[in-house]
Write a structure and sequence with these properties.
Helix content: 10-25%
Strand content: 35-45%
CATH topology of the largest domain: Rossmann fold
Strand order of the largest sheet: 7-8-9-3-10-11
CATH architecture of the largest domain: 3-Layer(aba) Sandwich
Order of helices and strands: HEEEHEEEEHHHEHEHEEHHEEEEEEEE
CATH superfamily of the largest domain: P-loop containing nucleotide triphosphate hydrolases
Distance between the termini: 52 Å
Shape: globular
Number of strands: 19
Number of helices: 9
Amino acid sequence: MASPELSTRYAAPLRTAPVLELCDLSKRFGDVLALDRVSLQVSAAELLAVVGPSGCGKSTMLRAVAGLLAADSGEIWAGGRQVAGPRTFVPPERRNVGVVFQDLALFPHLDVASNVVFGLRRRDRGRQQRVREVLDLVGLDGLGQRFPHELSGGEQQRVALARALAPDPSVVLLDEPFSHLDRNLRTLVREHTVQVLHAAGATGVFVTHDQEEALAAGDRVAVMHAGRLEQVDVPEQVFHNPTSRFVATFLGEADFVRGERVGDRAHTAFGTLPVTTPGVGPCQVMLRPHEVAMEPADSGSGVVVRTEFRGALVLHHVRFADGSTLRGVRPHSSPLAVGTRVRVRPLVDHPLAVFAA
């Protein structure tokens, strides 16, 4: 934490608040509105995954929180103190915010211990003890004298995380932290990183463009699009009950079936389906491929027009007489050939997301 003198000089007084709070944050680069009145709260020991397509503003938001750029308007509160606002801008080194950069930014001429100690202020007591503590926490005990080039990619990632955690920051920010790793290693390192952050009781925000990664690692997921937060909720809600068609299609494959909504039910060509939002009138019901069953039938209303082998499962594209299409999966051991006529039915054990037609 910053000393009382620095806090008085650089930031507003303490207040009871979430560990991280963004209030109407905006940032423009020329004609591009990168952040459009973004508001967000992150609780203590929570890991928030921010996911969105390239250029949606997620990295800009992270850089604003870190103090690496100034927002045009709005406020940022970290650790109960205002670090950015109309009359406040706390420099990055005084925000008590840890950052793990996409390229890790390790010093190649310094050994592991020296890289980690770089995150601590010179006047901090027990610096070497703290270095030993965080290296043990991230599973690098005994490797303090090695240099970055002597480590694997996963071990380098752990060094960067240890350096970010060393000062005991109020918030740890991770910017696409696993993108430089191959897929299998990325999964292992991600799981270890999440375990370390939870073990440290750290509050974390990590940015990713990988939807599966966001759903697997985040306590909550914030879906960003065109500078705005489209939805912030637990992974199950953003996946099964998206608040917009963008969220629905960005977080996984989704098709939309025409129907007529009456209360909490929708009448469709595939039967009457329960929906999440009651209403009346034309609608579109979201169905994901794993919610669709299809069986070969001469009297079926659909025809398989394309298949995609995905290892354990085969994705089938089915077209109907009105030109609409629907996707469904079957085990790799029982795929259907292109041209097969099929009967389709939804596998529904929960209300489905519904949108206005």
